[in-house]
# Entry
Amino acid sequence: MKKQTNKEEQLYKLLNIKFALESANQHIKYILENLDELEELKNLYKKLK
# Structure
């Protein structure tokens, strides 16, 4: 197997960062879309304490 060039290594690192950011973005969107439900759950939890 041939050794990857520095540019190839940088490209793979950037792609990994891109995929990680896209994944984080999806998680943030999900949280924001469900914020109201999360608030309701928090309030129910407080009542149960």
About this structure: The chain has a mean pLDDT of 92.
